[in-house]
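Handout, tutorial session.
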Amino acid sequence: MTVLNKNECEKYVSSFIDMINHRQSHETLRHITRNNDYWKMVNYIMLDYYSGKTTTEYELIKKLNCSVMTANNYIYDLVESKLILKKKIKQDQRKVHLVPTKVLITQMSEYIRRFKEFYAQTKF
């Protein structure tokens, strides 16, 4: 393992701090990154949205490392915060798709853009 020189480390740490400050300066990002399972849930919803897949509550909860009750509380909070919508599936009204709102899509797009710049700057 190679130790980076002081100037490289300073550049990387400065970029890390910039990403943290950006995340903390936006209410939506601060809200969705408050814990790892919550952040992971939002990312799974966004990944499905970007890839054109549907996100069901059941499949999402299976992917997380938290209890069903906790996951349902997170979903409820995201709906109440107007970051995701619950849409019933026409073929089976018992199933629900989780869809990001325009607010969440916009915030995530901005965060991804900044992360892309961060990644290009640090050149991992």
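The second record follows below. Compare its token runs with those of the first.
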Amino acid sequence: MLGKSERLKDRYLFDVTFKIGKTKKQKLSSKHLLLYYLFTKKGHPACMPKTAFIVGLKVDKRATQRNLVKRRMKASYQLIKKKLIN
């Protein structure tokens, strides 16, 4: 589970991430995954990026299956988190 300081929770942060990701082409996409990201300013005191995992209804209509996908994405993020910091 992600710590509170690592979660992207506020609605305005979601909106900023989507807006900047679409206009400045800060996104990665494939057939099954769409990733929006923001860069922090250099020298920013936050050592960890804030993250959120969203799975849409196109994946599956059942909430249990969408939650399974989110758990797997979080687990893979935990594995590569140290590489992202460096």
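Points raised in discussion: Residues 63-85 form the longest helix (23 residues).
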